[in-house]
Amino acid sequence: MPAPTHPRPHTETLANGLRVTLRHVPGLKRSAAALRVAAGSHDVPLAWPGLAHFLEHLLFLGTERFPASEGLMAYVQRHGGQVNASTRERTTDFFFELPRQSFSAGLERLSDMLAQPRMNPDDQLREREVLQAEFVAWSQDPTAQQQFALYEGLPADHPLRGFHAGNRDTLQVEQPEFQKALTDFHQQFYRTGQMTLSLVGPQSLEQLRELAETFAAALPAGDNVVQAAPPPLKVKSYQQVAERQCNLLFAFDALPDSSAQALAFLCHSLNSAKPGGLLAYLQQQGLADSLKAAPLYQFAGQALLHLALNTSSESLSSIGEQVRDWLSFFAQQDWTSLGEEYAAMLARQQHVSGALQRARLDSEQLETGLSATGVAALKHILGEIGTVDNFSAHWRLPTPNPFLRANEPVANAGLIRGQTSAHRGLRTFAQDRSRGRRERSPMHFSQALPDNGDQGAIYLRWQMEAAATAGLQAQLQRSLRETQDDARQAGVELSFSTTGNQWLLKLTGLQEPMPIVLEHALKCLTQVDADSARGEPETPLLPIRQLLKALPEQCSASVETSDNAQHLWTTSRWDGLALGLGAQTQSAMGLALSRIPGTPDTQIPAPSAINGQHLWRHIDTASSDHALLLFCPTASRDVADEAAWRLLAQLCQTPFYQRLRVELQLGYAVFSAVRQMHGQTGLLFGVQSPTFAPVELLRHIQQFIEALPSLIDATDLVQQRQNLADQFSDENLSTKDVAELLWQSRLAGHSSDYLPQLVSAIHSLERPALLAAAQRLNRAEGGWLCLASDSLLGAPWQATK
């Protein structure tokens, strides 16, 4: 099997011991950093569970040089980037993404917070309450508890069986012993020998290396500390049964090198839903509805492989037998073709990944694909599972992904049969008629994005006579599942959503496979059958996520429902938008466009607004936690209003979090942001709280909104305007970002030069106009929509379905 040919990042160890990986990607619009510390929840003293996670939180609370209002989180939010952190069993990760010109300042803040945390006692007490709230939510979350219970089959002395969440009882910040343990942990592990920094961006390798050296100079130098090895897992496998779920777990000790890539390849093969595979057979036999295989844990040669199967069958022993039978079949196969397709898939996915995804993958330092050592490791793993030479005859390897194959070259765009490139510029009457049809087509091929890149986007919208019932929605989503998986592997994100009586099919990513992906998707959606109705139980969501999932539906008018897919397709009207597609891709879309169901229509109306109304929707989240979302649309669809709302959102983001989460301690899921739905731009405020009811959460949000004028008066408006305008420059926006903005602008009825208009409107915003916008927001001139885990309040709120 040939080794994968993915370009590898440059790796080296700097003089002070910091390991760095540097990846120069010329086409990227942004830069990203991922820092991995080789220390996690299993490395803390037994007396202080949760200390590693607690320290991760404390590092974001500011330093002497960069207080919280100027720290990494606030800085990244102000420049429209992404930032987060994660503590796992043996690692802690910090990662962010920023526009290129702001990147070095972000790195400066990251190194300072890692090296010089303040560890202020008052900050610690406040942050402990945040972790206490997270612990309460975790202890009441069925999914989290089921995940924790998966380790019960392991030996009692293994750290996976321990408690590591951290709460008010274990994080005894008042005790000197705890403070010493916290300081010792930081000094022992937060030094260069324990760290790996991964940088990805359009900068040259030399520039990235300079950034890495500057970053490293601010950190405490130190050698690598060998993390204590865990005790043996001892068990080989075990099975657990929960409600509608069967869990199969395989435990491994002393795995060889490259076992991580071998497990990744095995899980990829297990998760295939194609005919002849494990999941397809289990579904056919009524044994399981879904299967998800993933490694739960990997460290020091140990691993725990988890197969989660949703099932209503009582033949649980039969499921285990079928899994082992398939594994025996798989162990005897030649993996060459599968490995080649797997490598092609990883290359496609890496190609369409942004800077942050690539930096995080590089920080894992995993080999991609399945190398020769990976093949040896996979054979060892399958041998440890206990595969045999005898297996059933009905198993088959999955059919090749049709979207990963090289497509045949498309005939030169603009030419018809019999013409050659010498005829270019000479048009026939037939071509003129064809061109006229396309120019009048509801599928608009926009020139707002250059068509000489390799990525693009396609949006297809249908206006239906009625909304889809929940059952029909499930059928439609299920019909697309295999096509979605194949498309994602080929570098195309395919999504389908139904909101009221408008349905939306969206493709983003590599443009080359898009025409055939679109053909397959349309065929699946228009040929739903009874088999497609077989759904999977949904994973329970946190209350705030339940509200976010329900929000788009609430922003559209309620209509009658229907489960007759064929009638809905036949009577539908459609339009669409394609961006960034070259002439070759446009030409290849002809067949797909001819198969779009419904009647073409360039005049589909925009969804109605909620101007001046106070609408309240109660959603039963089945949780003791409270949650509330407040969506505040602009008073009009004018670009100037959108600019003002976007600037208000930028001003609100850090102070809102600081006020409601840090100062008032209302909850742990606290955020504010701009959201666009169905062409409506709005400010979205969200809070989840274990103690405060929605009426109290709403009161605090209203108080924050009322105080916006004082926040505006204290703002450096020139700098804030520039930061916001920079986020919409060609240098910073990805193809996917531009496509979504232009689609939303089309729904709002804006012209094709919407983006330049928006940037101009942002630069034109003066303080009086922004204060007036804050007053319009406070008076709810654009309306307020509230989704809450509690029942309707009194006037002026009205119930909505």
Automatic annotation (TrEMBL):
| Database matches in Pfam families | Peptidase_M16, Peptidase_M16_C, PqqF-like_C_4, PqqF_C_3
Q: In which pathway does it act?
A: Cofactor biosynthesis; pyrroloquinoline quinone biosynthesis
Q: Which keywords has UniProt assigned to this entry?
A: Hydrolase, Metal-binding, Metalloprotease, PQQ biosynthesis, Protease, Zinc
- Chain's role: Required for coenzyme pyrroloquinoline quinone (PQQ) biosynthesis. It is thought that this protein is a protease that cleaves peptides bond in a small peptide (gene pqqA), providing the glutamate and tyrosine residues which are necessary for the synthesis of PQQ.
- Kindly list the cofactors needed: Zn(2+)
Which parts of the sequence belong to the Coenzyme PQQ synthesis protein F C-terminal lobe domain? 455-578
Residue intervals of the Peptidase M16 N-terminal domain: 19-142
Source species:
Pseudomonas shahriarae
Protein family per UniProt: Belongs to the peptidase M16 family.
Q: Which GO terms describe its biological process?
A: proteolysis; pyrroloquinoline quinone biosynthetic process
Query: Domain Peptidase M16 C-terminal, which positions?
Result: 181-336
This protein is called what? Coenzyme PQQ synthesis protein F
